[in-house]
Design brief:
Shape: globular
Number of strands: 5
Helix content: 25-40%
Oligomer: single chain
Length: about 90
């Protein structure tokens, strides 16, 4: 008899749904203060999770979910960069 492995769950800051960690994208703030997408989920930095679609990013911007997670204001160009990176990932 094998033991059932526990699947780590994380909450999307856009739609507020709990999903398995592997289904979500991690947005990180590096120690230098930069924001970027972490596809591997292993980079250093404070992280927040988003679903792999543009709708959840829009919801996170509207509800200020990312700003609450990082406890700081996020510049507009960071959201634009995240949107660009997200569309590149969706095209793969």
């Amino acid at each position: 008899m094998g033991t059932a492995r526990k699947i780590p769950m994380r909450r999307c800051v856009g739609c507020q749904e709990m999903k398995p960690k592997k289904e979500l994208l991690r947005v990180i703030r590096t120690p230098e203060g930069e924001f970027c997408l972490d596809e591997t989920g292993r980079k250093n930095g404070r992280g927040a999770y988003l679903c792999r679609n543009g709708e959840c990013l829009e919801k996170a911007v509207k509800s200020r979910g990312l700003e609450r997670s990082f406890k700081q204001a996020i510049p507009e160009e960071v959201y634009q960069n995240l949107q660009k990176e997200l569309t590149e990932l969706e095209q793969r």
